[in-house]
Design goal:
binds zinc ion, mainly alpha, three-stranded antiparallel beta sheet
């Protein structure tokens, strides 16, 4: 049993076992995972932190990737129920919420910078100011916001926190939901058959050999 509250240094480092669990959770091999910023009470990863620049050179703005299948499917239910539309309407109408969400965006960028420093990636100017999930003004992917909230802890991303509260029927942080949540038999996936992840990655990632274009392609989406 490990405590999960503050993610001390030694629990951030992905072990070989962590990487295997991640590939089983996602059904594909993982690459460029540099930290495990949130864990189940049992110690298994909930969120993977990907390097801000992949080993093939591609800038990668989506730092916090929700990997636990129980949480990802629960968050998908919220998306299917239309929660993002509701959040976007509230962001447009509620200045306090909008300001808190902009702060979450700033936090995301600072956390990514810190991960880049710790993993010796260095600056990634192509994604300066670009976070993920629709931040700072829209909600485009709840999985991204939940991944951020689990990594950052409560009180940082108001809409991620809200989504976590919204899935309490299916997942809560105080319990382990790992048993049976992914295939633990046979070899872990070693070939990437999935092509893309489910979490609404920005257009500048997930394609081979992206052409470096003007900054307007990295403007955080529309
Ligand atoms: Zn667990």
């Amino acid at each position: 049993m490990e405590e999960n509250t503050t993610a001390p240094e030694d629990s951030r480092q992905p072990s070989a076992h962590d990487l295997e669990v991640l590939s089983r959770q996602l059904g594909r091999p993982v690459r460029d995972v540099v930290e495990i910023p949130a864990r189940c009470v049992c110690g298994n990863p909930l969120v993977a932190a990907t390097a801000p620049r992949l080993s093939n050179g591609t800038p990668f703005p989506t730092t916090f990737y929700l990997t636990h299948p129980v949480i990802t499917s629960a968050v998908s239910r919220l998306e299917a129920a239309g929660l993002m539309n509701d959040m976007n309407e509230r962001l447009a109408a509620d200045e306090h919420l909008a300001a808190a969400y902009r702060s979450a965006h700033d936090h995301y960028l600072a956390a990514r910078w810190a991960i880049g420093e710790r993993s010796a990636i260095g600056p990634v100017p192509e994604i300066d100011g670009v976070s993920a999930g629709g931040m700072p003004t829209r909600v485009k992917c709840l999985h991204v916001l939940v991944g951020h909230s689990l990594a950052a802890g409560p009180g940082v991303n108001p809409l991620g926190d809200e989504a976590i509260a919204g899935i309490s029927e299916w997942w809560t942080a105080d319990r382990c939901y790992c048993d049976g949540a992914w295939d633990t038999t046979g070899d872990a996936p070693s070939r990437d058959l999935s092509r893309h992840g489910p979490q609404g990655l920005p257009e500048i990632v997930g394609r081979p050999a992206p052409v470096r274009k003007a900054a307007d392609t990295a403007g955080g989406g529309t």
